Amino acid sequence: MTRTRPIDDATLTSLAGEYGTPLYVYNAGAIRRQAATLSGFDIVRYAQKANSNLAILRLIRSLGFRVDAVSAGEVLRALRAGFRDQEITFTADIFDRAALQVLGEHAVHVNIGSADMIEQYAHIRPGGDITLRINPGFGHGHDKKVSTGGEESKHGIWMAQQAEAVKRVEAAGLRVTGIHMHIGSGSDFSHLSKIRHAMNVAVRAAGDDLSYFSVGGGLPVPYRPEDHDFDIGRYTRDWHKTKADLQQDLGYDLVMEVEPGRYLMAQAGLLLAEVRAIKTSGSQRYILCDAGFNDLLRPAMYGAYHHVSIVGGDTGMTFPTLIGGPICESADLMTQSKGSVVDPRELPEAQVGDLVCIHDTGAYGASMGSNYNSRRLPAEVLVDGDDVTLIRRRQTWDEMLELEEVSPEPIVQRP
Fold it and tell me: Is the separation of the CB atoms in 178 and 116 below 8 Å?
């Protein structure tokens, strides 16, 4: 499949001129198109860790979707974006003290990933309903770091311990009303058959109060030009078969939930950066730009692939090229594969001042950003048809430093 930009070159050039670079650009229309493919599920719950910008959350809520939160801060973000308590689920493997305080103040449903959380939740919400997140004993993903099942994953209650956990729930005066299972990003259909079987077992062992099950997220998107779109129709049909079998055996209806994050956001976003230097080192040609792994961590952390293009670049002769950033680390390459192996891209000639477009960065781009090397967080804009909205302004130098000014010392000027 040929990757295309969601926004044309003229608009990108104009946005970079107005808002500067690095700049995240999101396309609201692309989010809506992905959302429309999920209509076969009873509930769509957005995994906001993919991109938790308030404007994105408000757009997601306008689609009738609910939201998942994995921290106290994400609960408060969801509330600020307009979600009601009953539209939010808190999913975690621990309750830190901040989370317990927020959950004590808001009647947010919880998805429990460790049995020790049961009594802690009963203390702040006596008689409450909970979901159990089950680790089915296997995982999957495009990288080991995103596999969320199996012995080497910290997530979820080990499936063989589910019965014991259900007893603890009952003893604590709570009710298990949901089962959640998520084995990792990049799930394929061979693994889907395994998790559907595991879901059958887990749901039947959940007790008499069960009303819904969540199939998790991790729906793939095509990052590489040769990748194909995920068969969401087949995925939906397969889960409907599981739902029908469970309902027939249990004798009552169940609600089926899906939890997309990357699937909704990745292709809707891109990162614009300005070319600041071009050089060769031996046989390698480098384009160095003003976006680093503090802006987009996925290539350095996972060896993740992102298609790269030059805005307005000549489509004629191309050269193997590595894209690097300004961070003082050798890992600061947008073009690398697993194991820090360099992965040059065929790109046309570029000049200082040209724009580099890093594609499919709407998920786990800005949300994983940092101030490493004391670099400011980038700006973000949302394009909706002809409307452009600045949804996060660029961080100022003072904002980056202000939390450290507890007892400010004057700067001593040496003679």
Answer: no
Considering the entire predicted model, what is its pTM? 0.93
The pLDDT, as a whole number, for residue 1 is 41
**Distance between CA 150 and CA 139 in Å, rounded?**
5
Length of the chain: 415
Helix, strand, coil percentages (3-state) for the chain, rounded to 5, are 35, 25, 40
Which residues are paired to 389 by β-bridges? 382
Which residues, including other chains, have CB under 8 Å from residue 282's CB and lie 6 or more apart? none
Contact 103/95 with Cβ under 8 angstroms?
yes
For residue 22, cis peptide bond before it (omega within 30 degrees of 0)? yes
pLDDT in tens, 247-258: 999 999 999 999
Place of tokens 């007892």: 407
CA atoms of 152 and 109, how far apart (whole Å): 27
- Is the distance from CB of 323 to CB of 404 less than 8 angstroms? no
112 φ/ψ sector (left φ>0, alpha ψ -120 to 50, else beta): beta
* Strand pairing report for 379-384 and 336-337: unpaired
Q: Which of 160, 317, 328, 403 is catalytic?
A: 328
328 is catalytic: yes
On whether the CB atoms of residues 206 and 132 are closer than 8 A, the answer is yes
What is d(CA 312, CA 5) in angstroms, rounded to the nearest whole number?
12
CA dist 381 and 31 (Å) reads: 14
Task: Quick: pLDDT tens for 137-147.
Answer: 765 544 444 44
